[in-house]
């Protein structure tokens, strides 16, 4: 592969609840881990709910500690009591009945380009929704992360990457997935089972790989976009 400049990823800061850059949080309509919500909420400066994501927020926040900046979607999933509750607290609620964009896509349209995107939920639940999330990660030319109940994931574009590892907030298991491509050549350093191979859904896959407890950085080089996923604590 031709030489590329190395990109350093410091998004482990999201798991510690503070950030050195601008992030926007979008809560989707999937179950929420309360502790993960708290950390992500503290790390971002814009917070949105994608339609039924407001139900998920309401169900874990009985103290009204977390009020989103906007609830947006076609509003066919938000419960009437939840919509009335947030309306009474002056949370803006915007209905968009467009049928060729999902509620997630409608929320992304509201986020300034200088903000990285953080999706809370999106990799569990219905299979079609999970595939849609992976599609958004793959095709959007924006910095976008998914925080789910067990994993954090984002796309690594062609080139070299150094991923900062925080072993206090990241678990042991990780994976490199060729989603949305035919195949990619991938090389790694810093994993228990480093690879230097072509990866594809009908060929080699690095799943259930492990971070090394003594390694603070994982280095990955890829010829095409791949999905990096790591377990979170």
Automatic annotation (TrEMBL):
<dbReference type="GO" id="GO:0030975">
    <property type="term" value="F:thiamine binding"/>
</dbReference>
<dbReference type="InterPro" id="IPR036371">
    <property type="entry name" value="TPK_B1-bd_sf"/>
</dbReference>
<protein>
    <recommendedName>
        <fullName>Thiamine pyrophosphokinase</fullName>
        <ecNumber>2.7.6.2</ecNumber>
    </recommendedName>
</protein>
<feature type="domain" description="Thiamin pyrophosphokinase thiamin-binding">
    <location>
        <begin position="159"/>
        <end position="226"/>
    </location>
</feature>
<keyword id="KW-0067">ATP-binding</keyword>
<dbReference type="InterPro" id="IPR007373">
    <property type="entry name" value="Thiamin_PyroPKinase_B1-bd"/>
</dbReference>
<keyword id="KW-0808">Transferase</keyword>
<dbReference type="GO" id="GO:0016301">
    <property type="term" value="F:kinase activity"/>
</dbReference>
<comment type="pathway">
    <text>Cofactor biosynthesis; thiamine diphosphate biosynthesis; thiamine diphosphate from thiamine: step 1/1.</text>
</comment>
<dbReference type="GO" id="GO:0005524">
    <property type="term" value="F:ATP binding"/>
</dbReference>
<dbReference type="InterPro" id="IPR007371">
    <property type="entry name" value="TPK_catalytic"/>
</dbReference>
<dbReference type="Pfam" id="PF04265">
    <property type="entry name" value="TPK_B1_binding"/>
</dbReference>
<dbReference type="GO" id="GO:0006772">
    <property type="term" value="P:thiamine metabolic process"/>
</dbReference>
<dbReference type="InterPro" id="IPR006282">
    <property type="entry name" value="Thi_PPkinase"/>
</dbReference>
<comment type="similarity">
    <text>Belongs to the thiamine pyrophosphokinase family.</text>
</comment>
<keyword id="KW-0547">Nucleotide-binding</keyword>
<dbReference type="InterPro" id="IPR016966">
    <property type="entry name" value="Thiamin_pyrophosphokinase_euk"/>
</dbReference>
<keyword id="KW-0418">Kinase</keyword>
<dbReference type="Pfam" id="PF04263">
    <property type="entry name" value="TPK_catalytic"/>
</dbReference>
<dbReference type="GO" id="GO:0004788">
    <property type="term" value="F:thiamine diphosphokinase activity"/>
</dbReference>
<dbReference type="InterPro" id="IPR036759">
    <property type="entry name" value="TPK_catalytic_sf"/>
</dbReference>
<dbReference type="GO" id="GO:0009229">
    <property type="term" value="P:thiamine diphosphate biosynthetic process"/>
</dbReference>
